[in-house]
Write a structure and sequence with these properties.
The complex is a heterodimer of chains A (596) and B (597). Chain A has 596 residues and is α/β, with parallel strands linked by helices. Chain A has a domain of 168 residues: Up-down Bundle (ABC transporter transmembrane region fold), CATH 1.20.1560. In chain A, 64% of the residues lie in helices and 11% in strands. In chain A, the strands form three sheets. Chain A has a six-stranded mixed β-sheet, with helices on both faces. In chain A, strands 2-1-4-5 form a four-stranded antiparallel β-sheet. Chain A is elongated and about 120 Å long. Chain A starts with 18 loop residues before the first helix and ends with a helix. Chain B has 597 residues and is α/β, with parallel strands linked by helices. Chain B folds into two domains: 326 residues, ABC transporter transmembrane region fold; 239 residues, Rossmann fold (3-Layer(aba) Sandwich), CATH 3.40.50. Helix content of chain B is 63%, strand content 10%. In chain B, α21 crosses α22. The radius of gyration of chain B is 36 Å and the shape is elongated. Classes of the chains: A alpha/beta (596), B alpha/beta (597). Chains A and B meet through α2, α3, α4, α5 and α6 of A and α2, α4, α5, α6 and α8 of B.
């Protein structure tokens, strides 16, 4: 799959259908009882609402002509009663529906986030992070009302409509048919609008996503922007994206805003038609016009007929608009989890530390193999160094040990157990992996170290920090371990971040340790001090080390020289030197410096 | 809570409507027009019914005045169509204005954010800034597109209906109107309750945004530690608390709803009772008619035009508070000023520098720190020279080089380029002359070519290849299936550390800077490649002063000058040979890296 950037829209060619709504019903099912209850209450409230005009009618027809003040007051008290009941019912419905709609958002967001945790690196590597973020936060917020109140209102309005149509037909079939003549016109109008609207809202969601992607990258990369003094150029790019958002939005709301006036126009035409047909057309055809009562009644029903239709039109607008978001959410939820527990996965027992690669093939992209038929075996407790040119596949090999990717062919075995047959959690929680990019979370330094072992005590944290030589600089900070650090904070140097991330790995007490350029930003002095701690750490643990400084690795039990997707040389430092091969060449080139 | 800004929120909105104010005023007028029309159409159709159906002389009119019937019918249809056209144009006008405001403020904010100094970036979290530019700004848009329209609409309806009522029967109108002030009082109470909720809600949203954002950015660490469950729990807390705050906020409205709805409905009751009594009185006193039946019907037919605006007030207040909470956050960025800016009398220096960099007794301390990071630093790098800086982790190396492009201001002393204090140059011109490859490599999700050409988007493809060759990157790039058109993921995740560093170096070289600063840029590069890089750096085809932070002796030994930094102070300074002869820290380093072979 091609990678996506902020410039490209994420294509999603799918015809509009209500399948998404059907699927969303999974989220509503949980609240079905509450929603039905709210529906009944609303219907009840609607019915009570019908009493009020009757009371007014009674006052006008009976109480007032008879100058019966007492009866008037009684009627007023009845009116108060209906209002009180209706307020109570509305309050109950609101209370229920607030819970339901917020519950639905919460559930969708929770699922989405949980699914994102399962998605492989590839997913995150292939698209700007801002595009993922907008789905979790902004899109989910948008769809909640549609799935809760939207649905209830649709049902209510449809009931309303059915009642009114039934009443109309019971009054006069001919005029009722005149009223209904407006419906096909409306249907054609809505169908036309629907297709336009859907495309338009998809475009809006795409453009917003692009903008979000660009924004996020530029906030994170502000330093780069500034050092290259590219602010003006970026501002232009951003203005372009911003303008795309504005233009697509204006197109989309154009259709939205047509719906209401469209329905309104059709409705007034229908009312004019009632007068016209009732008084002119039918009068000549059948001798004698429709009775006054019939025309007044139908005309009042007609206006009540169009009210729910207008409301439905509004809800419809909302649906179309939000389905563009809903489908993005489902698209993310449908993203295949390529690295997942096998259906019959077992727990990885406590790892002793034997690691074996059996004819492993791997490629990130089809037809571009990164590893070809790699086989090796590491005994428990051994330390293995991987050396070789950048991009040779060293990081890939260690990524496969923790199953960050699935192998393309062959097997990776730990203690003789194929790692694709055990649960990811039981596997990875026993491994300590230090990556090149030492990511620090917002929070205190203590929190960041504790990430490796959630129940670590302060003493453990301090002890781990001491071993990795981080305690000194942390203690020197004003708030010590309580110092707040930021994701891209400047308070810590890159080397300090690596030390913290080292402590984080150490405290997790891993059975297999993977150090991927873990010390590249640490100065040689500190690294040397660190070495003692590291040696202790490596004792009894199978360790994989990728490093360019050969001083770091020459004491390893096994050194593998990786190039061109395979292991070219294997052996101890002395063995490889004696071989006078690639490692020898590499080593001597580094040692040349001695003579300088 | 509310911060002091140079302008009030509404003034600020008005300012950002510049160029669209006329359309906006037209839109406000349009709202009044269609609301008045909304009251007239029912009036016409009631005339129709009165004159031709139910009235006393309906039959006579029908027989003799049929043209008038068609005219009324025509007016009814015509007025409605006219009204719908007005509604459509009016809504579009609001959308147009609100989108213009959004566009303008969004671009402005973006520009503000990207020009902020580093202090700003260590204060605001990415997720929080994102919330301000997206969610908060949307609340501002909503204010212009919808809230203001509804306010005008309610006002227009209420006023025109009231005028109509007063003209018809001022006594009854007054009796109904007395209830309005009470609703205002309740709304005011509602405001004070809901206001803090919106501020809180907004915080919760930003918090959730931040969690999600960091989780996505840190997805590798999460997986490495198998912390998915922990992350889910953490996010769940934010999600739950956002949900609960949302519910709480909505419940404030539910609490006030009975009072507001009750008072709005009381108008109906007042109409029934007082109107009814007036009617009964009038029947008893035909000589002193207080209210006619027709007036009573007209009142009950239009009472919604008084009630609905009252009901809407709560909603309006709610939305207004949402806007207010969001606008606070937006305006905070809008009016924020970076501390590091061009001096008012900055000198104009559009061309390249010669490249002499001089530190004179420079000291530095982070504003949020308590310890000096750099103490009394003085050294000079002559044009074309290479100066290497070495020292322990956290000794202040990176802080030192960050002072050169003015990411921070020194707290003492001065930094000169070509003999001029850097704070006298224009920031842009200063930075355009500096090529910096940072330690923490940030690439963009873009093609490799786009990343290398970041500093100068107009350079040719040949030049891109040339600079990639300088940084020993051309070989691995050429091996990629799509070569320079390969899209690298955010932060260059598809690449190894060494590859990223080399692209970042090519990017810094591509602007042909007169001062090149490398912050441990080759730490993840293998020795062989590093040698190539050092070699090409020594033979650059443009004049360039190089300041290089490095750990490896291989990088530093050819430097004209090596500076050893310890605890923020220069402890050793000299050439490779001189420092070895001196037998200090550097000598130790050399032994450490090579001697133990």
């Amino acid at each position: 799959m091609a990678r996506n950037t902020f410039r490209q829209d994420e294509r999603l060619d799918e015809p509009f259908n209500f399948k998404h709504l059907l699927r969303a019903s999974v989220y509503m099912k949980k609240y079905a009882g509450k929603m039905v209850f709210a529906l009944i209450i609303s219907a009840l409230g609607g019915a009570i609402g019908l009493i009020a005009p009757r009371i007014n009618q009674e006052a006008l027809d009976v109480a007032i002509p008879n100058t019966d003040t007492r009866y008037l007051i009684e009627l007023a008290i009845m009116l108060v009663g209906t209002i009180v009941i209706s307020i109570i019912l509305t309050t109950i419905r609101s209370r229920i529906m607030i819970k339901v709609s917020q519950g639905i958002i919460y559930d969708i967001r929770k699922d989405l986030f949980a699914h994102l945790q399962k998605l492989p690196f590839q997913y995150y590597d292939d698209r700007p992070h801002g595009k993922i973020l907008i789905r979790v936060v902004n899109y989910v917020n948008s769809v909640s009302d549609m799935l809760s109140n939207g649905l209830i209102n649709v049902i209510l309005e449809i009931f309303n409509l059915i009642f009114i149509v039934a009443f109309m037909f019971s009054v006069d079939v001919q005029l009722a048919l005149v009223v209904l003549c407006g419906v096909p016109v409306l249907a054609v109008f809505m169908l036309w609008i629907k297709n336009k609207q859907r495309k338009a809202w998809q475009a809006v969601s795409n453009k917003n996503s692009n903008l979000n992607a660009y924004l996020q990258e530029n906030i994170v990369g502000a330093r780069i922007t500034q050092i290259f003094a590219r602010e003006d150029y970026n501002a232009q790019v951003f203005a372009g994206l911003s303008s795309d958002c504005r233009n697509t939005w204006m197109t989309a709301v154009r259709y939205n805003n047509l719906v209401w006036p469209g329905i309104d126009t059709i409705s007034v035409l229908v009312r004019a038609a009632i007068f016209l047909f009732g008084m002119v057309v039918f009068s000549t055809a059948e001798g004698g016009m429709k009775s006054v009562g019939v025309i007044v009644a139908i005309s009042s029903y007609a206006s009540r007929f169009w009210q729910p239709i207008m409301n439905l039109g509004n809800i419809f607008n909302n649906f179309i608009n939000n389905i563009a978001y809903l489908e993005r959410i489902f698209q993310t939820l449908d993203e295949p989890v390529t690295v997942d527990d096998a259906p019959d996965a077992t727990e990885m027992p406590e790892i002793k530390g034997e690691v074996e690669f059996k004819n492993v093939d791997f490629s990130y992209e089809e037809g571009k193999p990164v590893l070809k038929n790699v086989s090796f075996k590491v005994k428990p407790g051994q330390s293995v160094a991987l050396v070789g040119p950048t991009g040779a596949g060293k990081s890939t090999i260690v990524s496969l040990v923790s199953r960050f990717y699935n192998v393309g062919g062959g097997q990776v075995l730990i203690d003789g157990q194929d790692i694709s047959k055990v649960t990811l959690h039981s596997l990875r929680s026993q491994m300590g992996i230090m990556l090149q990019d030492s990511f620090i979370f917002s929070g205190t330094i203590e929190d960041n170290i504790r990430y490796g072992k959630l129940d670590a005590t302060m003493d453990e944290i301090r002890a781990a920090s001491k071993i990795v030589c981080a305690d000194a600089f942390i203690s020197a900070m004003e708030d010590g371990y309580q110092s707040e650090v930021r994701e891209r904070g400047t308070t810590l140097s890159q080397g300090q971040k690596q030390l913290i991330s080292f402590a984080r790995t150490l405290i997790s007490d891993p059975k297999i340790l993977v150090l991927d350029e873990a010390t590249s930003s640490i100065d040689v002095q500190t690294e040397r001090a660190l070495q003692t701690g590291l040696n202790n750490m490596m004792k009894g643990r199978t360790t994989f080390i990728i490093a360019h400084r050969l001083s770091t690795i020459k004491n390893c039990d096994v050194i593998m020289y990786i190039d061109d997707g395979g292991i070219v040389e294997t052996g101890t430092h002395e063995e490889l030197l004696a071989k006078h091969g690639l490692y020898y060449h590499l080593y001597t080139s580094q040692m040349d410096e001695k003579g300088a | 809570m509310s911060k002091r800004f140079p302008k009030t929120k509404l003034q600020w909105l008005w300012e950002n409507m510049e160029g669209k104010r006329f359309i906006f005023m037209l839109a406000l007028l349009g709202t009044i027009v269609y609301n008045v029309l909304q009251l007239t159409v029912p009036f016409i159709s009631s005339r129709l019914v009165d004159n031709f159906l139910t009235g006393a002389d309906a039959a006579y009119n029908w027989a003799n005045n049929r043209n008038f019937f068609f005219i009324l019918l025509g007016i009814m249809v015509g007025a409605t169509i006219f009204r719908t056209v007005v509604v459509y144009l009016d809504c579009m006008a609001y959308e147009h204005v609100s989108q213009s405001v959004l566009y303008r403020v969004r671009n402005f904010l973006y520009n503000k954010i990207q020009r902020q100094d580093m202090k700003f970036y260590s204060t605001y979290r990415t997720g929080d800034l994102m919330t301000r530019v997206t969610g908060d700004l949307d609340a501002v848009r909503h204010m212009v597109a919808w809230v203001i329209r509804v306010i005008i609409e309610s006002f227009a309806l209420y006023t025109s209906a009231m005028v109509y009522f007063f003209v018809m029967n001022w006594k009854l109108a007054l009796c109904i109107m007395v209830l309005s002030p009470f609703i205002f009082a309740v709304i005011y109470m509602f405001r004070s309750k809901v206001r803090p909720m919106h501020a809180k809600l907004r915080e919760k949203l930003a918090e959730m945004n931040t969690y999600a954002q960091e989780n996505i950015s840190g997805n590798r660490v999460v997986k490495a530690f198998a912390r998915e469950e922990y992350e889910k729990d953490k996010f769940d807390k934010a999600n739950t608390s956002y949900r609960d705050t949302n519910c709480e906020t909505a419940l404030v409205w539910v609490k006030f709803y009975p009072a507001i709805e009750g008072m709005a409905s009381a108008m109906s009751i007042a109409l029934l009772v007082i109107g009814g009594l007036f009617l009964i009185y009038s029947i008893g006193h035909p000589d002193n008619v207080q209210l006619t039946m027709g007036q009573f019907v007209a009142f009950s037919g239009l009472i919604w035009a008084i009630q609905n605006p009252m009901r809407m007030l709560g909603n309006i207040m709610n939305e207004f508070q949402r806007f207010s909470a969001a606008a606070d956050k937006v305006m905070e960025i809008y009016y924020s000023e970076p501390e590091i800016v061009d001096a008012p009398d900055a000198i104009d220096h559009p061309g390249s520098f010669k490249g002499e960099v001089e530190f004179k007794n420079v000291s530095f301390m982070y504003s949020d720190g308590n310890l000096p990071v750099l103490k009394n630093i003085s050294f000079t790098a002559k044009p074309g020279e290479t100066v290497a800086i070495m020292g322990e982790t956290g000794c202040g190396k990176t802080s030192l080089i960050h002072l050169i492009p003015r990411f921070y201001e020194p707290t003492g002393g001065e930094i000169l380029i070509d003999g001029v204090n850097i704070n006298r140059y224009k920031l842009e011109q200063l930075r355009k002359n500096i090529g910096l490859a940072t330690q923490d490599v940030l690439l963009y999700s873009d093609t490799i070519e786009g990343n290398i050409a970041y500093g100068d988007p107009h350079i040719t493809a040949e030049q891109v290849v040339k600079f990639a060759r300088y940084s020993a990157a051309s070989e691995f790039i050429a091996k990629m299936p799509e070569g320079y058109d390969t899209i690298v993921g955010e932060r260059g995740v598809g690449l190894s550390g060494g590859q990223k560093q080399r692209i970042s170096l090519a990017r810094a070289l591509a602007i042909e800077p007169s001062i090149l600063i490398l912050d441990d840029t080759t730490s993840a590069v293998d020795m062989e490649t590093e040698k190539q890089i050092q070699d090409s750096l020594r033979h650059l085809e443009f004049p360039c002063t190089k300041i290089i932070i490095a750990q490896r002796i291989s990088t530093t030994k050819f430097a004209d000058k090596i500076i050893i930094l310890q605890h923020g102070e220069i402890t050793e300074e000299g050439s490779h040979e001189e420092l070895i002869a001196k037998g200090g820290y550097y000598c130790e380093l050399v032994k450490l890296q090579t001697g133990e072979a």
